[in-house]
Here is the input.
Amino acid sequence: MKILVIGGGMGGTIFANHLARRLPHEMKTGKTQITMLSANHQHIYQPGWLYVAMGRATPDELVREQASLLEPGIEFHVDPVEEFHLAENHVKCKSGKVYEYDLIVISTGSRPTPETIPGLRENSIHCYTADDALNFFRQLSAFKGGRIVITVGLPHKCPMIPLEITFAMHDFIKDRGLLDKTEFYYTYPIGRVHSLENVAKWAAPEFDRMGIRYETFFNMKEVDGKNAAVLSEEGAAVKYDLLVAVPPHKGQEVIEKNGLGENGWIPTHRNSLHMEGEYGKNVLVLGDTTNIPISKAGSTAHYEAEVAAENVAALIKIGCPVREYDGKVFCFIEAGKDRATYASFNYQTPPQPKAPTGAVHAFKMAYNQLYWATARGLL
Amino acid sequence: MSTQRVVDARGSFCPGPLMELISNMKMMAVGDVLELLSTDAGSAADVPEWIKKVGHTMINTEQDAEGTWHIRVRKEK
Here is the structure.
């Protein structure tokens, strides 16, 4: 069976490695071939950008060569897909090469699109790329006091970032001795400070304790750079001295250009992870690329990839899949520079976050290094 | 001519039904109708509240025999 994996991020890499580990005999004899196509020769640990923005990491610490992470036998090419021909079971790449498959796994991720909000790109900072995270650190380091406004666009990946970046900035500014000269103003799109009700119930009193003001039901519409104000769909206007954005995101352009999904989000069954529609029988979708109403988070891609790999291996060995994805997500929540908590939930069970501790923060810092074992299908 | 889309946010805790609605509304044309399916009882209150704030139209809200809320809204701007 020829299995083609599109995307060398978390979902694609974890899937390919888990599958290869489950099929050593089939890989060795050539009964199963796994080929990965990516636009990037590097694999980036994206959760690390938060730490770059706070001056606690540098971008080079967050990357590994993709080929070094893959199980022997997995064919890897840096050759971005340009055309998906799902009816004929092949893709065509930038090089002109055509790859045929029996089963395709699409895990192409998502990208920040601040340019979709007028005025946002040029008047705000965010930490969703290496360069932007470095710029974030420089601008925060140069900040001399005033109002820092946090504005959140939808949808976005890493659902905990609005809280994490706020708590992290609070500690950063405190350490710089500027807390008495700085006002934090947090805005959020719905009627509480976070999408997860129990997380919001924990975070709002924290904001109160720390003197962080907040305004809910705030969906940014445009940024008036001249008057330094962010305007909302709800009719509000908030003035800022430094505007921190969680930009709205889209899936990759190639997905939309090929008609696979609006804004780059592919319609996907929430349990089987098959693409919806007539060609979905041999198309799996993982991670941010899906349109499943679930967190666009690394752990989502991770747990989806494990289920998908287990099912594809079972399909090859016994002729049928063996389990469904139950919506499992696990997100750390950094609550400042030295304490953290986490949210663990699935489609049936909401999270019950505990108070942040140094121990959970230490675990997160350890996991930032252990992630590479996850990427290799070991953890 | 308006189109209708259905957003199935049953069992969605994060980002949750209202955020799914907001994300989908951005992709819709004025006049289009969205039906949100939600198992979160809070949706029956927070969706109408947001719709009113922004100036869209609440068409109706009903709960079916399985407990799923069907919330229909129309994009007005």
In short: Chain A touches chain B at residues 154-155, 159, 189-191, 195-197, 217, 219, 233-235, 248, 262-263, 270, 293-295, 327, 329, 343, 345, 347-348, 350-351 (CB under 8 Å). The first helix of chain A runs from residue 10 to 22. Chain A has a mean pLDDT of 97. The domain at 2-109+252-329 of chain A is CATH 3.50.50.60 (FAD/NAD(P)-binding domain).
